[in-house]
Amino acid sequence: MATDKILKQAIKNVLDAEYVGKEIQFTETWGFKVESYNIRTRSRFIPKKEREDYGCDAEANKFFIVEFNNAKKEEDATDSAAICLTLNPKGEVGTTTIPCDYEIEYPYSDFDTNFFDKVITYIANNL
Prior knowledge:
Blueprint: H1 4-19, E1 23-25, E2 31-33, E3 37-42, E4 62-68, E5 81-87, E6 93-96, H2 111-126
Antiparallel strand pairs: 1-2, 3-4, 4-5, 5-6
Helix pairs in contact: 1-2
Protein name: Phage protein
């Protein structure tokens, strides 16, 4: 069972240990070096009635948006890339896609699931 604080710390530790300063393959055709990131926490991000469309836990009440600041994708002028983890009242962590209207590139590869697995493993080993 995770809390806001535990999940945010796990995200930060995984990013710092596994990704910062390294080249990542964000999508099948786009990679970049992770130089900096922001972790934004929102209680409302995807409306409840739309959550199924994005593979999101219907009970999620916290959204942790990890935004990679230095990601540049020239062909569509994307300034940032992001992934999103969720937390529900039971302390269960999940992942969800990001709605297109946020104009943030979301991975269409295994990057998000690999990141999710590393965060879950970190929580399990460090609680």
